[in-house]
Amino acid sequence: GAVVSQHPSWVICKSGTSVKIECRSLDFQATTMFWYRQFPKQSLMLMATSNEGSKATYEQGVEKDKFLINHASLTLSTLTVTSAHPEDSSFYICSARRQGVLTLYNEQFFGPGTRLTVL
Amino acid sequence: RKEVEQDPGPFNVPEGATVAFNCTYSNSASQSFFWYRQDCRKEPKLLMSVYSSGNEDGRFTAQLNRASQYISLLIRDSKLSDSATYLCVVNGGSQGNLIFGKGTKLSVKP
């Protein structure tokens, strides 16, 4: 199967700092990448959809100025949490969609996630 | 109504038991359906897609009822290694993104 990597796998930072998370599709091109967030014992919640070469589409309630997304190439998307606060502590997971013949059945492949802890 | 709703769980079953998970979805226009498995502190991993005709993969059987907007997963002869959270997932967001249920936790005991 296709491989998606995320870096870093975990990060601890002080309140007020910015954290960048990278999501890479290692062996396929991903025109679309998705960023999810998961709080303990909660479901994955979509934060934003990232399309290569265009601005990301954010879900309702997600601040685009706080969660900066860049998808500059077909294999890399980055999420930057700016001025992180303790309530931003969560498990951030990206997924990459590989275009298939039947677009309705495009597969998504998940990265291993990044666990962010803001002190 | 939540977009994807699942049995709340947790399900605690002995090895060898058969266990069934149910899921309903609200968007009748949804086209793709999946069951994912998520282990503690890990990313979700695709367990199986769900087709209208129903499909089986070893001990796992998935069923879809479009009229009722209902999806099920049956696990037969459960193993200790089946212990995980099972996520019902529907493709149907405006961006073609996946919509996740909250998950049902399964714990298989010896």
* Alpha-carbon distance between the two ends of chain A: 37 Å
- The radius of gyration over CA of chain A amounts to 14 Å
Average pLDDT rating of chain A? 89
Order of helices and strands of chain B: EEEEEEEEEEE
- Assembly context of the chains: heterodimer
Give the helix tally of chain B.
0
Task: Estimate percent helicity of chain A.
Answer: under 10%
Distance between the termini of chain B: 37 Å
Task: Quickly give the structural class of chain A.
Answer: mainly beta
Query: What would the average pLDDT of chain B be, to the nearest integer?
Result: 91
Number of helices of chain A: 0
For the largest beta-sheet of chain B, the strand count, sense and barrel status come to: 6 strands, mixed
Coarse structural class of chain B: mainly beta
Q: Based on CA inertia axes, which overall geometry of chain A fits?
A: globular
Largest interface: A-B, 25 and 23 residues
Helix-residue proportion of chain B? under 10%
Which stretches of chain A are low in confidence, meaning pLDDT under 50 for 5 or more residues running? none
β-strand amount of chain A: over 45%
* General shape of chain B: globular
Explain this structure to me?
The complex is a heterodimer of chains A (119) and B (110). With 119 residues, chain A is an all-beta fold. Chain A has no helices and 11 strands. In chain B, strands 2, 4, 5, 9, 10 and 11 form a 6-stranded mixed sheet that branches. Chain B has a 5-stranded antiparallel sheet with strand order 1-3-8-7-6, with no helix packed on it. Chain B starts with a strand and ends with a strand. At the A-B interface, strand 4, strand 5, strand 9 and strand 10 of A face strand 5 and strand 10 of B.
Concise account of the structure shown:
The complex is a heterodimer of chains A (119) and B (110). With 119 residues, chain A is mostly beta strands.
List keywords for this structure.
heterodimer; A: 119 residues; mainly beta; 4-stranded antiparallel sheet; globular; B: 110 residues; 6-stranded mixed sheet; 5-stranded antiparallel sheet; 11 strands; 0% helix; 55% strand
